[in-house]
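name: query_chain
kind: protein
chains: 1
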Amino acid sequence: ALEQQVAAAEERARLASERLRMLSEQNQDQEEFQQQKLKAADERVRFFEHLSQEAQAAAGKQLSASEGLAKEQRRCLEDAAESYKSKWVAEQSRSEQLQSELHTAKVSQDQELIALRAKIQQLESEQERSTSESERAQQEAKRKGDELSEVKKEELAKAKRIKELEQ
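structure:
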């Protein structure tokens, strides 16, 4: 009976060790996921900062009629950059929580997708308004539309990766 108890205790210890190993791997996977997410957020911030700088340079070169539009676009891009900076800081503080809860990460990602879709709709509306401006403003609006398509593709791919991870 003592040998059976020892064997059972050894089996429980082995199972506990295996579970600890699996939890460690899961935590490591979640940490890597969060690091990738933070890196992507940082890249989005840099991307919008870059767009803001381009909008600033374009504002100096446009005609006085298009200066108002360029300033509005610049303001929107700076607001977006600030918003993403704030989100990035918030994501850093939440990353410790999200390491142990993949479901919470999906909810957070869904919220970001909704916010991004709203921002895309806003930028698309601005793009439509800009079509009545000078040819330079039309070319700028087309370029922004192309960039928005890339952002949409990236976010859809990101959402697909999350769904794949959940499965």
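note: The chain has one domain: 2-166.
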